Amino acid sequence: MENMVTINLNTLHCNREAQGSGGSAPYLWPAMLWVDKTTATVGVLGALDQDAHTILKRGMKPGDTVDIPAKVGTILRPFDDDLSNHVIIVTAALWEDNESPGYAVEAGYRAFQSTLRQAIADNLLNLNSTDPQTVADAETAIKTAVTAGVTQGISDSLTTGDKIKIATGIMTLDSTIDSASTSFSNLVNTSFTLTFGGSFGGRLLFYRDFTRNGTGDVDTPSVIGLGGWAGFKFLFSGGDGIIYAVNPEGQLLFYRDNTQNGTGDVNTPSVIGQGGWAGFKFLFSGGNGIIYAVNPEGQLLFYRDYTRNGTGDVNTPKVIGLGGWADFKFLFSGGNGIIYAVDQQGRLLFYRDNTQDGTGDVDTPSVIGLGGWGSFLFLFSGGDGIIYAVDQEGQLLFYRDNTQDGTGDVDTPSVIGLGGWQAFQFLFSGDNGIIYAVEKALDPKDSYEVAGSLQVSAVLCAGERDAVGAATQAVQSAKEIVANLEEEFQNAPASQKPFLRQQIQEAKQQEAQAKQQLAAAKQALAACLARTPPPERRPRPLPVA
Questions:
Q1: Per the CB 3.0–4.6 Å rule, which of 248, 332, 397, 514 could disulfide with 389?
Q2: Is the pTM of this model over 0.70?
Q3: How far is 504 from 496, CA to CA, in rounded Å?
């Protein structure tokens, strides 16, 4: 079955802009690239050239959000083979409108798409490297090549008069704010965020380890908390979408991720602990409303959130560990009464809270990891014996405690995240493969975010869609020919202008014919869609000129 992959860039949100009191006037250059894993070929699609200078909003200021029109933000491509054969890359450049001529913007956008496709093809092998530095070098090479290509494309399109105005300060070309990209190796319906100019940070991100067996690649998060999450003292999951936090005032807060699929917005907490929670050395959940804490005296305390709905008051702990618990490097729960610890020698220890009701005495651990566990930057459980770790290189590692009874030897991890995981403020699991992350707080000059989605649907009226796509391309090509001829006419000597004028007239006739063919193709597509199943099952139509 043929499938349609649709990229939607839905909204642009401004966190901060450097244009001053008048606000900014941003516009987007979108590109959807696909990499065929079997042939290593790279393709690219974008908006029409004529839409490359679509100002999203004039006077955009911090806090503003604007809808991105479909002619700019929606890109579709059908695939008639297995989607697992392809990787989709979504890239966009964000520009600030000044005084660039429209033809210069269109020329730059054409160069953006062509050089981006070629640069990715040239660096494809290094982009797939397991070495983070090799990948980073490839990304830098791509950005350098695209910047040079766009600069040259714009320069070549400028007239002599334009260049004089720029040199004398009469004309100011549009300025680039930033570019951003994300990739998808698993083509399923999902949401994503592109950040331009620099993130404010402090956002709550949602990742998913789909395989939960050490074979997956955990990447491409969704944003489910828009900011402020980096300011907490403690942040951890209680399972079932519950997230506990301790604010600077020492209150215990209750949040809920209702969807647990990366689509929700986690906000508006309830206060379930009135104060004093910031003074603990460790604070973590044991599941089923259990909260473990280690006080400054090194005792292990047992709390219970009985309601687990944000209405209770969590107080009055019981002591279930008499001392020494503050000396550990890491301390976290594995569920079902299991508590993992890393001691000063870097060993991984296994404890069990057998009663899980606050009456037991948790002591006498087993050693299940012989050394090296103290060097990790993050260490936390994913449930069912899964232990995630982030090493000094920023890789996300997958371990498994197969026995979960204190008798096993936990070693030999798999790498499931290739780099960058060390940069987070908090990192913790939400069970069922969910991994929550919080960015560190930042202070950028510019900060914009695009909220987008990837959608996969069965293609309806495939032949008619192909005809619309081909006709659209023909119109675009005809327009390019006319524009090039008109530019040549402008700079040509008088002796050549009659000949060029005739060529322009013929090119415009061909453009008119192409538009007629496009109109006919649209009618055929509309007629086909009228015969298809109800609207909720239809994919969105192709963008047209």
A1: 397
A2: no
A3: 12
